Amino acid sequence: MTNKSLNKLEEDVMGFLNEVQLNFPEAISMASGRPEESFFDLQNLQEYINTFVNFRSKETNVSTEAFLRSLGQYNRTKGIINDIVAKYLKNDYQIDCSPADIVVNVGSQESMVLSLLSLMNRDEDVFCVEDPSYVGISHFALINGYETAPIAVDAEGINLEALEKTIEATKQKEKCVKAVYVIPDFQNPTGIRTPIEKRKKLLQMAATHNFMIIEDNAYGDFVFEDVAYPTLKSLDTEGNVIYLHSFSKSLHPSLRMGVMVADKVFEDGTKLSDIIAKIKGYTTVNSPAIPQAILAGVLLKNNYSLQKYNEEKCRNVRQKRDSVLASLTKYINASKETKLQSVTWNVPEGGYFLTLTLPFKITKEDVTACAKNYHVIFTPMSFFHLSKGGENQIRIAYSYVKINQIETAIENLVHFLATKITNT
Ligand SMILES: Cc1ncc(COP(=O)(O)O)c(C=O)c1O
């Protein structure tokens, strides 16, 4: 009766984690990739709207009253703040693009949906996605019946040899890899950052094999080691990258603001951003004007850059990462269970997540047992894999947990792992 593709989703992983949290409310969650609420800038919303209204009314000679009223109306499909966003992307990410190639969406989730709807044909094309990856896009692709190929992630991001093999195998089947989704900066779920050389190689591959790269930069505002790497989009000279930028982590998720840059011009002169706008007209019609006005106000007040605005938030997430790393070392070294010494983890250079690799497998039942008996919730890495994989890894999300709870959470988690390892 309903969409048969839903059967391809193994289980409702987010529903499961919510259920665990509801059943064990005292458990500290290291499962949620939410931003910390104490930084939400919600007191000044009217001021931000006024800043934008005054800016536009001066520019257009429309009265402030009339311009404010216009925010209650349906609006331009691609957005009403594209010029302001273009200056921000240039300042903070060295991305050069025309406002006409930007589409302002309802979060990056809508940008993902529009990217796939504008590119993919069900019977001809294959969508490649890092494995493990963000299920927001991989599950949308599956629900929509798009052929989706998982590509392994190694210590430096998407594995290019595996991608090459999939491209060749797809050609053999007389199909083509149309799009490749990557999160080069502090990937969700692994926390890995892709080195610059590899970014360049991926761009070369896109040009050689004629596919589009969908670059999701949800965590690029949270760089801990000072040096930001250039985004794929800033290195892209051929329009082969669709760049997705979310404001959920740097402002707040309920704003539901994400922007995409899609400056590809196809051989027949068609512009990808125009195709996307056409499809958006049949999905969300246009993005709500009021959140756009708030976002534009924040950007205008901060001189088209969020680097200073986010400094404190970034420092806070970094402190949390440091606390996770220090606590892991402290409690694993202190444990009487010597087998725990083979547990390893990466040191993320930014973002919200870190991967723990264990000498045994972790199941859904372990999540419940750990929440019940040790009062900590984590996510098995296997939840983010499309195919098999990640059975002996867990994702630690440190963004949302209170800084003063981290040491207890990690101490308890290590006790849980010690018990588990002893019994394995
Ligand atoms: C990699 C990635 N992309 C996109 C999103 C969602 O972005 P938005 O809230 O803008 O839809 C998330 C949210 O956690 C994410 O981890």
TrEMBL record:
One of its GO terms (biological process) is alpha-amino acid metabolic process. Keywords: Aminotransferase, Coiled coil, Pyridoxal phosphate, Transferase. Signal peptide: none annotated. It comes from the Bacteria. Residues 153-180 form a coiled coil. GO terms for molecular function: pyridoxal phosphate binding; transaminase activity. Its cofactor is pyridoxal 5'-phosphate. Residues 85-412 form the Aminotransferase class I/classII large domain. Gene3D superfamilies: Aspartate Aminotransferase, domain 1, Type I PLP-dependent aspartate aminotransferase-like (Major domain). This is (S)-3,5-dihydroxyphenylglycine transaminase.
